[in-house]
Amino acid sequence: MSLKQTLIKNAKIVNEGKTISGDVLIEGEFIKAIDSSISAKSSDVLVIDAEGKHLLPGAIDDQVHFREPGLTHKATIATESKAAIAGGITSFIEMPNTIPQTTTVENLEAKFEIAANTSYANYSFMFGGTNDNLDEILKVDPKTVAGLKLFLGSSTGNMLVDDPKVLEKIFKSTKMVISVHCEDEGTIRSNLKEYKAKFGDDIPIKYHPIIRSEEACYLSSSKAIELAKKTGARLHVFHLSTGKETNLFTNKIPLKDKKITSEVCIHHLWFNSDDYDKKGTLIKWNPAVKTEKDRLQIWDALLDDRIDVIATDHAPHTLEEKKNVYTKAPSGGPLVQHALPALLEMYHRGKISIEKIVEKNAHNPAILFEVEKRGYIKPGYYADLVLVDLNNPWTVTKENILYKCGWSPFEGATFKSRITHTFLNGALVYQNQKVSEVKHAKRLTFNR
């Protein structure tokens, strides 16, 4: 029996810094061939005419919170991975601050089991570090898990790693990529105390980036980098939010040789502190969206390769939770369905090329985490692919939002570009604004 084939014709194929016109043949789960013209050899090949559309490798989102287990009133692996597929994100790496936390191998495997049964997109998880779980960290197989996540600020439960001796021991002991959330807790507590004295719990949201300040971010990031340099650890700093922090990173060496890397999230590229007036706590994130100057400096660092990866930090909460007063409103928002359309909007505005978008949200996460056979359009690679029409406008409305929480910080925004098809492991899983109910997701594997 021959393997199922799909032939994508007449696409503008975006890969490794170039856009070429051509065809892509998919056989089974993999890309079989790429050429200027490929003919269907039999009548049972699914042929898709991609005339006028761009074909991108599926995005790999290195930081999401899908809330399962334990917080499933906000989201589940099923609901959010479905939204990711509609947003052109074909693989995700999910964070450990669920309930229970992913800080034991047993809890990690339980999460993998949920994803194996319910995920619409390819999946892996971060293992979580605490002040007292080094033994568990050492049990984790780096070939089967994305990496290690440490909260050096803004943690839930007992996940704040604030013992310097433990931190150094973890940095010295693991070969995994250590991904960190960097905000100095002492600075934030002191700032919060000051504003609570003035306003009580109902602090105006505009003070969020002053409470979770540039100083809090820089102090924590610079300490983590110093420790990585001292121990030789492989460090990845999540969600940079300040211009000042970008100067801690280099573009002088290729990504594959970097020991210290960084990420920016879509909200820090899109919003600035002026948006709090209109969006309120809906754009309350940790770290906070900061000034327009910070946003522009982050863009500069992304485009000159001091920042390596674009991610979402997708972190849904219910609308009811978000509409609480400042101290009770949780930080985070849903983003996986709208991140790629938002980036393509920045392309239309002349801010970034499509080739650079692909580099930052597909190629580079694959290099950084050593993801096996994904993140590129190459023969022999898994066919995780996204077709986009750059001239097919649509508006984000309640009716077309797929997140379980039912809202988006982009509500009301009109995007010029539309994702028309998503392929996952060779299967067509999204078209005509619908995600297929047949699941084709696989656990990510790593070349380590």
Automatic annotation (TrEMBL):
Record-linked Gene3D superfamilies: Metal-dependent hydrolases, Urease, subunit C, domain 1
Domain Amidohydrolase-related: 55-429
Sorted UniProt keywords: Hydrolase, Metal-binding
Pfam families in alphabetical order: Amidohydro_1
CDD domains reported for this sequence: DHOase_IIb
Segments forming a coiled coil: none
Cofactor or coenzyme needed: Zn(2+)
Domain of life according to the entry: Bacteria
Keyword Metal-binding set for record: yes
SUPFAM superfamilies on file: Composite domain of metallo-dependent hydrolases, Metallo-dependent hydrolases
GO molecular function, one term: dihydroorotase activity
EC number, as in UniProt: 3.5.2.3
InterPro entries membership: Amidohydro-rel, DHOase/Allantoinase_Hydrolase, Dihydroorotase_CS, Metal-dep_hydrolase_composite, Metal_Hydrolase
Function text: Catalyzes the reversible cyclization of carbamoyl aspartate to dihydroorotate.
Family membership noted in the UniProt record: Belongs to the metallo-dependent hydrolases superfamily. DHOase family. Class I DHOase subfamily.
Family annotation (NCBIfam families): PRK09236.1, pyrC_multi
Protein name (Swiss-Prot/TrEMBL): Dihydroorotase
Organism field: Gaetbulibacter aestuarii
